[in-house]
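Q: Convert this sequence to structure tokens.
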Amino acid sequence: MSYLVNGHEITVDFPVNSISVNKSSIAFTDSRGKNRETFSKRTEALKFMKWLLSSNK
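A:
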């Protein structure tokens, strides 16, 4: 699945095994391996984390 933020597409291969949050960065491990995304605002990072959690079913 893909998540679009500010014209940038983030591709996630579910299921997500782990999620780590540090200020405006989200690190997660999916079926492709470890990934890290850094956002310009913390609110954008939190929205992405909520999307990861809700889509990881």
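The chain has one helix and five strands.
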